[in-house]
Amino acid sequence: MVGNLKSARHVFSRRPFCVIVGVCLVVASVMVWSAQHQNDLSLLLSQTESSSRSHASEAESRYHNIDSVLQRMAERMAQGEAVSTVEWEKDAAFYIESMVGLKSVAWIDSEFRIRGLASREGDDAYVGHLANEGLWDSSDVNLWVSVYRGSELAGFIVGTIGIEEFVSPILADIGNDYAMRLTDGEEVVFSSANWDSRSTQFTTSRTITLVDTAAWNMSLAPTEDLVDSVAADSLRTLLFSLALSFMVTAAVFLAQASNRKSIALGRHQADLQVTNTELEQKRLELAQFSTRLEQQVVVRTAELEDTNRALTLEIAERKKAEEETRLLAAFPAEDPNPVLRVDEEGVILFANEASAPVLQTWGVGVADKLPAEWQTRSKDARDTGSGLRAELACGERVFEITVAPLKEWGEVNLYGLDVTERSLAERALEAEKDRIQGYLHVTGSMIVVLDADGRVRLVNRRACEILGYPEGEILGKPWFESFLPARMRKDVRPVFDRLMAGEIEPVEYFENQVVTSSGEERLMAWHNSVLRERGWIAGVISSGEDITERRMAERERERLLGQLDDKTKELEQIVFVSSHDLRSPLVNIQGFTKEAQEALDEIGELLQSQKLSPTVRERISEVLEHQIPEAFGYVLAGSTKIDSLLAGLLRLSRLGRAALRIETLDMNKLLGEVTNVFEFRIKETGTTVRVEKLPVCRGDSVQVNQVFSNLLDNALKFLDPQRQGEITITGTAEGEKSVYCVEDNGRGIAQQHHERVFEIFQSLGSGEGRGEGLGLSIVQRIVGRHGGRVRLESTPGHGSRFYVELPAGGK
To answer: 480-487 — which CB contacts under 8 Å span 24+ positions?
Structure first.
């Protein structure tokens, strides 16, 4: 025992022992400092990530609240409520004051004119800038919400978010210890003033989901000063540990010195050995106690640091929970529409007072689960990351529920909008549409309604039959790209776009082809009318008639008419040549007949001087004075008749070759000339001819004179001998034609002969009244060449009325 104590005292008294103790304490201090430094940096990174997550969620929530407000304002405008600019700006100002970061709200029509504008108090200069320049500050963010009335774009609700105001709560919370930046892709939306002094080592990023697929990236980083401060704390701990190690080493050194003195004193004072040994033990105990104390200090320091970190995290989490509660409770309580918050299990966390009808319909309350159908919708919204909408009937009221996911928290918000009036209007509109569709189905024409984008909004059954598609495959398709031949689209579509823009007036009638499901092209004749809604052009309604077969028949008719015209010209040439050639022998017949008559007279005179028996003389006298003259009379009458017919044929053939000199005719003057020609016959028959005031017409004066000369000649030729003749010539202007009537009180014509009288060589007269049967044929031919027509009304014993239609003359 005594040997062991001596050995221990020998080792303790050696100087290397003190050095070893000192080195061990320094190494232990450095290790403690390194561990603490790493813990401090980890805590700083954890705090930064927690702050980034909390503030990103806060910014996303405030952004969606602003978007929700703008959506409700747009819905209200879409319902067509009559809102004055003052009322609108008052409502907008209320939302601006309620929303942090909402700088202004503008109401813009579809032509991008500002109809209403509101901003925060004190931003009058900003409002004036917008109203005068029509521009927004490039540092702001604008949310555009389209307003549709039906399928028509009525305008936009534009909310301007002032980025500095939007992020001011975040900046106030993080102070100068952190730097923040917002980016949209490569573009910097906002950067705090101390961004350049950030520590890149501890920068964290969070995605802020905006509307649709848009997103911001929020980067948060502690400043270099904050990192240096954390490092300085660790360094102070290291210095404290080193100082403590120095003190312990010094104590060991003093203990060694004291031990050495004790040994020396023991050599000289053997009697004090026991006391010195006890003293040495006490000193050793003191050294051990100092070592244990150092270790306890280190352990306690680590415990205190762990406790401090835990308290810091707890405070951060509590602030986050308080902020979430504030954000959750602040806005929805003011909202007149239902607002609910649901967790990922489908449990209702919060519902404002306006949600009472919805909860009553579902039969649930706060802390209850949503109905299964709405749990599915909430899950779909969380999984897809995009909102969805569905209608919910609550008694007599109808709400449109928007399910909006909160990606960061795994929860969803449910926003309700009362659309009862819109729902009733849509049902009434659908019923009216069905009723009108029923009317359209019974019409024989193809009905197509296009909206301002050229898409098919309505078709009737006839349109489906012509195009060869069911109604469902036609509605919603672009008309020009789907149902018009490709060669026509580039010409027709620009005209339609200009019509929708109000740059041109609609064409009431036009023709074009459509392409059926089989690829066949059908020719349609369209009648069009522009559809207007509240003064704006909303589309066009067209009624189309399939004229494919009719147009083919017209072309065939034109082809046949062309052939007929060629044959007619050929026949006219034959008639002209034949009549001309026939008149030559006819003249010879007439001439030689007269010569034979003269020779016969000479023979009679010679026979008178001859002595003949009475029987022979009587026989010769009968032949020479009766039989032969009678035969010559027949020959001359027949040749005269043939000559008259040939002359008529020549006149008729010349009508087809004669060029028309169309001019405006004074019919009162022309009829005066006609009646003057017939003045002798009029007086001879005692006929009264009355010509009333006549409208002008367009025609060839010579041929129109021929028409009325033939009609007046016929009227005088077929007078009734039993009463005095009366002929009346009248006329009226009827649109694009002038109608003249030649009326007489003559014999009249039976109904079965009304068409026959216009045929060539047809005459119903007898004796002196019988002509060659060409007069009315010539009348019909001349009137037809002028683009008119002639018709007859007559009753036997009551006279006749001939109506002549000719093109009306200009004023």
So the answer is: 480/454, 483/514, 483/515, 484/512, 484/513, 484/514, 484/515, 485/513, 485/515, 485/521
**Block residue for tokens 């927690």:** 50
For 499, residues 6+ apart whose C-beta sits below 8 A from its C-beta are: 506, 530, 537, 540
Non-local (6+) Cβ contacts of 795 within 8 A are 748
Rounded CA-CA distance 592/572 in Å is 30
Q: CA torsion angle for 557, 562, 567, 570 (degrees, to 10)?
A: 160
Q: Residue 120: which of 141, 140, 99, 135 has the closest Cα?
A: 99
158 sits in which H/E element: strand 152-161
Give me 678's structure tokens: 């017939």
Which residue shows structure tokens 């040939």? Answer: 646
What ranges make up the beta strands (E) of 298-387?
Answer: 339-342, 348-351
**DSSP, residue by residue, 760-811:** TT-----GGG---S-HHHHHHHHHHHTT-EEEEEEETTTEEEEEEEEEBPP-
Place of tokens 């105001």: 165
Q: What share of the chain is helix, strand, coil (3-state, %, to 5)?
A: 55, 25, 20
* pTM, full prediction: 0.32
End-to-end CA distance of the chain: 154
CA 295, CA 290: separation in Å to the nearest integer?
9
Closest by alpha carbon to 190, among 137, 268, 245, 112? 137
Write the burial class of residue 116 (CB in 10 Å: 0-12 exposed, 13-18 middle, 19+ buried): buried
Is 752 in a helix, a strand, or coil?
helix
Amino acid found at 264: A
Query: Is the distance from CB of 771 to CB of 765 less than 8 angstroms?
Result: yes
Non-local (6+) Cβ contacts of 403 within 8 A are 374, 377, 378, 380, 381, 387, 388, 389, 390, 412, 413, 414
Cα 563 from Cα 798, distance rounded (Å): 42
How far from 331 is each of 13, 65, 324, 358, 584, CA to CA, in Å?
78, 8, 12, 19, 116
Contact between 547 and 555 under an 8 Å Cβ cutoff? The reply is: no
- Which of 166, 70, 71 is closest to 118 using CA atoms? 70
Q: Where are the beta strands (DSSP E) in 186-325?
A: 187-191, 204-209, 215-222
DSSP conformation letters of 720-739: -TTS--EEEEEEEEETTEEE
779 vs 212: CA distance, rounded Å: 81
Here the tokens at position 363 are 């039969």
d(CA 158, CA 73): 10
Question: Looking only at Cα atoms, what is the longest distance across the chain?
Answer: 236
One DSSP character per residue, 302-315 reads: HHHHHHHHHHHHHH
**Sequence-distant (≥ 6) Cβ neighbours of residue 657 within 8 angstroms:** 572
Residue 560 exposed, middle or buried by CB count within 10 Å (0-12, 13-18, 19+): exposed
Residue keyed to tokens 């070893």 = 20
Q: What is residue 121's predicted lDDT score, i.e. its pLDDT? A: 57
Phi and psi at residue 520, to the nearest 5°: -75, 145
Q: Taking Cα atoms as reference points, which of 701, 703, 668 lies closest to residue 778?
A: 703
Sheet holding 187-191, edge to edge: 187-191, 178-184, 215-222, 204-209
DSSP symbols for 533-581: ETTEEEEEEEEEEE-HHHHHHHHHHHHHHHHHHHHHHHHHHHHHHHHHH
Determine the residue type at 637: A
pLDDT means per 10 residues, the chain with 811 residues, are 45 58 70 72 78 81 82 78 70 79 83 81 49 54 80 84 82 82 82 80 79 76 79 70 68 67 60 59 64 60 65 63 48 75 89 90 90 89 85 89 84 89 72 63 80 90 92 93 92 89 84 92 90 81 90 89 77 66 69 75 74 75 76 71 64 64 92 90 91 93 89 89 91 93 89 73 51 74 89 88 89 48
Bridge partners (DSSP) of residue 727 are 689, 744
